[in-house]
Specification:
Belongs to the DegT/DnrJ/EryC1 family. Keywords: Aminotransferase, Pyridoxal phosphate, Transferase. It comes from Teichococcus coralli. One of its GO terms (molecular function) is pyridoxal phosphate binding. The protein is α/β, with parallel strands linked by helices. The protein has an eight-stranded mixed β-sheet, sandwiched between helices. The mean pLDDT is about 95. The protein has two domains: about 240 residues, Aspartate Aminotransferase, domain 2 (3-Layer(aba) Sandwich); about 120 residues, Alpha-Beta Complex (Aspartate Aminotransferase, domain 1). Helix 4 packs parallel to helix 5 and helix 6 runs parallel beside helix 7. Helix content is about 40%, strand content about 15%. The chain binds pyridoxal-5'-phosphate. Pyridoxal-5'-phosphate binds next to helix 4 and helix 5.
């Protein structure tokens, strides 16, 4: 049997590069000619432009989104002897970062409609922490797929408990909640700039942002050996620098992000229409939240069949994520869970399916997906 030809890839970072090739090639040539490749003027300019775009005073570039979370935790002084609360329905990076900082993860369940942290369960664990864990010092809400967590009750519960909030914005560049940019709601925000994210480098990159200048100074020192002055470590640091080539590419792309997110939203609207009346429900939008569709996720008890039927029409899909973090071999049996025991997380991991939604999809590719969705519904 012939394998179907994929005409609509689930992600396509090369298409984004080709669409912007002259500007990106010029930016790269500029860096190559400059002779300065790490933490120079491009990185400093990108940090300033990113902070301005977000509406915060400071941003600190780093090597990737995992390190961005680690810098946020370590900058806040959170490590051994602290528990950090997040969800199991996330990129494993969120949980890995907590352990890299030396802290203990506690994983909560999600709201099954939006796939984001269950705020009621958070309130419950802050009021009545599970026994045997170090004190809870921070919460990492993950704005998964490009949509905000239920931030009002979450922030209220964290403030009442005196617990820091680190927003994981790796999938939510440019998303808003009640008109406010995600990443400006907590104490500090971590962004991945991995090649398939809404704002993407051509390699690994990340950035942390905050309105707290002292925290920004600490994170900037930690990312380079704990230096405030060259060769003098005031604190224990790491090496997690942003290189100039990536910063220059990101400076080309930041001004294009709003249009790219609008394109994702237009594709999402086309999928909504194609799904109307069928068995697959479009993603639930949280009232007041502007969703930037890092992923367009539907769920089905017959996921394998749906994927196979889409594939037969040339449409590739992906699963984010096929296994909750707490069930993965590296974590199983040793990570604390909240009282809900991640039941909705486990159900979601069996049923979620991500359609192609990158902004470089052509109208013809979007129509191919819509036609395949209509067929799948029938
Ligand atoms: C991508 C991602 C990360 C990690 O980013 P890297 O750049 O791959 O280290 C963290 N959290 C979430 C939710 C992500 O999607």
């Amino acid at each position: 049997m012939d394998l179907p030809v994929i005409t609509v890839p689930q992600a396509d970072p090369g298409a984004a590069y080709r669409a912007q090739q002259p500007a990106i090639d010029a930016a790269i040539a500029r860096v190559l000619q400059s002779g300065w490749y790490i933490l120079g003027s491009e990185g400093a300019a990108f940090e300033q432009e990113f902070a301005e775009w977000l509406g915060l005073s400071r941003a600190v570039g780093c090597a990737n989104g995992t390190d961005a979370l680690v810098l946020a935790l370590r900058g806040l002084g959170i490590g051994a002897g602290a528990t950090v609360v997040t969800v199991s329905h996330t990129a494993v990076a969120t949980v890995a970062a907590i352990e890299m900082a030396g802290a203990t993860p506690l994983l909560l369940d999600i709201d099954p409609d939006t796939y984001t942290m269950d705020a009621d369960e958070l309130r419950a664990v802050l009021n009545d922490p599970p026994p045997g864990l170090p004190p809870i010092r921070a919460v990492i809400p993950v704005h998964i797929y490009g949509q905000a967590c239920d931030m009002a009750p979450l922030l209220e519960a964290c403030r009442a408990a005196g617990v820091a909030v680190i927003e994981d914005c790796a999938q939510a560049h440019g998303a808003t909640l009640d008109g406010r940019m995600l990443g400006t709601l907590g104490d500090v925000a971590a962004f991945s700039l991995y090649p398939t994210k809404n704002l993407a480098a051509l390699g690994d990159a990340g950035i942390v942002a905050t309105g707290n200048a002292e925290l920004a100074d600490r994170m900037a020192a930690i990312r380079q050996y704990g230096w405030k002055r060259r060769y003098l470590s005031d604190m224990v640091g790491v090496n997690s620098r942003l290189d100039e080539l990536q910063a220059a590419v990101l400076r080309v792309r930041l001004p294009l992000l709003a249009a790219a997110n609008a394109r994702r939203q237009a594709i999402a609207a086309a999928y909504d229409a194609a799904l109307a009346g069928g068995p697959l429900a479009p993603p639930v939008r949280r009232p007041g939240a502007e969703h930037v569709f890092h992923q367009y996720v539907v769920r089905s008890r017959e996921r394998e069949e749906v994927m196979a039927r889409l594939r037969s029409q040339g449409v590739a899909t992906a699963i984010h994520y096929p296994m909750p973090v707490h069930l993965q071999e590296a974590y199983q049996g040793r990570i604390a869970l909240g009282p809900a025991a991640c039941a909705e997380t486990e159900a979601a991991s069996r049923e979620v399916l991500s359609l192609p939604i990158h902004p470089e999809l052509t109208d013809a590719q979007v129509e191919t997906v819509c036609a395949a969705l209509r067929l799948t519904a029938g």
